[in-house]
Each structure stands twice: as C-alpha cells, then as structure tokens.
Amino acid sequence: MSSDGPTYKMGSTGGQALVQEKKGEHTFEKLVLVHPTAKASCEIYLHGATVTSWKILDQELLYLSPTAAFAPGKAIRGGVPVVFPQFGPGPLPQHGFARNSLWTLGETKVVQATGDMSTELHLEDTEATRAVWPHAFRLTLTVVLKPTSLSMQLRVLNRNPEGGSAFSFTALLHTYLGVESIAKTRVFGLQHARFVDQLDGGAVKQQDSEAVTFPGEVDRKYLNVNLARVNDGGNCELMLKSTGFRDFVVWNPHVKKTAGFSDMPPEDWRKFVCVEAGVVQDPVELQPGQAWEGAQGLSIALLPEVQSQVAEKAMQKL
Questions:
Q1: How far apart are CA 152 and CA 296, in angstroms?
Q2: CA 163 → CA 40, 267, 285, 287, distances in Å?
Q3: Any residues with CB less than 8 A from the CB of 309 and at least 6 apart, and which?
Q4: Residue 303 pLDDT > 80
Q5: 16-317: what fold?
Q6: pLDDT for 10
Q7: Integer Cα distance of 280 and 129 in angstroms
Q8: Which of these is catalytic: 47, 95, 135, 174?
Q9: I need a surface site. Which of 133, 220, 227, 251 has the fewest CB within 10 A?
Q10: 276 catalytic, yes or no?
Q11: Beta bridge mates, 18
C-alpha cells in the first residue's frame, strides 16, 4: 500500500490500516478499511477527508485521476471530495475549503455481528478558515463500509457562541463513479425532475427522457430528488440514495473542458460520471448550536433480468 514506511493499526478482525504515503515532496496519510468478509474495501485520505477508492470483489467502483495533484491546498481529482461551505464559484475558492484541508481521524468501529465498519473524520475552523469565512464550525464525515455498500454522512455544527451569528452554506459529496464508457452510461431515476442547466445560463428545465445520457458535456443540478441509478452497460447498477441532501448534481466535462484540466489525462472524461448528493440550490442556515446532517448511500446490485437468469440457473441445478 505504501512505498515509504507505512504504519498500521490493525484490528483483530482484519479491518484497518493507517498508511503514510509519499506523493512527490509531500507525505499524506490515508485510512484503509477492509471488510472482514474481504468482499469490500475503501481508502480515505485525511487530506480533504477524500474517499479515493471503493472496491467490491477487487473491482474499483470510483474514479481517481492517475494525475491527481497531491499537494497541500489542492483538491484530489476523483473519489469523493467534500464540498463545503460553498458549491461552485463564489466569494470563496471553487467548492470551498473542506476538500483542501487536513482533517483529523476519529474513532473506527466494527460491528462484531456483521463485520461492518465505520470511521469518523473531523474538521474544525482554524485561523486560516476564519480569515475567509468568519464562523466557528465542526464537520464530521462518517464513512460506513458494508459488503455491497458504502455510505457517507456529513454533519455540520455551528459552533458560534450563543448570541453569535448564524451561517449559511451549501455542501456536496462530489462523487466520481468509474464507468466502462461514458458513451454507454445512463443515469436513471430522474425522469420528471426539475433541473438547473448550468450550461444554459442556469435555465430551469424538466428531465423528460427516462435516462440522462452524455453525448456532450453535462452539468446539471437536479432539484428535490434523493434516488438515482447508474448503469454503464454492464450486468450491475449502482444505486444512490440520499437523506438530508435535497439535490443531485450530474456532471461530465467531456472532451473540451477536460483539455483544460492539469490533473486529469485528456481522454479520462470517458471513464467516469459524477452523480453527487448535495444541497446546492438553496443554502442551509444554521443558528449557533444547531446541527445539520446529510447522507449518501452507494450500493451495487445485479440488474433484475440478470437476477432472473441467475435464479433460473440455480433452479436448474436442483
């Protein structure tokens, strides 16, 4: 896992390792979780609390750019960066500062009966964050790994003192899903939903077709939705379900925009689609002492027709 002297914290049920990894001139720490069934694993960098890998049966389900920049103050291109307190451009740097910050690792737990694993990462305000966003806050990202699913919950706490100021924010789990080919990829479950087309001046439209397809660049904010399914032409679908988050962002930069990225190969737009749970259209407002939570669950399942074929073959063997 590391070429530069990893340190391990391994549980008795074979579950976790804290790895130091050399990236150019810098050393980064990541937490590796392996489900005791050995069917699933994930990797989380403390830099940005970014989940960069999620595997089931050794198959990678997330996309991580092979030329992602690993450097202080830079976001990791791929995986699931945490966007807070600003989605997109604005007075703060693009997508805020949480994805560029160093988080602290909290407790990792294992459910003995199932082997399911959870870990917490935390980020609090610092002098640097208060210089650009003058609020006291605490973020907690909880990642839960099960044999066929991965969930992430983001909790935001307003730590401003009683009588202090409320604050407003937008947030998102910027999920890069690996696909075999974007040309064959379809996103289902959003038919009839309203969306903001960010490539058409923010025009509000309705999704009339059954599936979102990607003949060119797509950049949309789907409003008041919490379910989506992604299929890239294979035998399985990836299911996304959110709570607390009100919106989904669906994005693929296609060829022209990708050419301007310094941290992604020019052809890699073909290898991923972003379907991202967030609260991006209407900001959340928190009074001092109040907290908000949003969660995203990812799970994988065989297509119904494939399930039927498997069941028929099983019956024939009886």
A1: 5
A2: 46, 52, 15, 9
A3: none
A4: no
A5: Beta-galactosidase; Chain A, domain 5 (2.70.98)
A6: 38
A7: 21
A8: 174
A9: 227
A10: yes
A11: 31
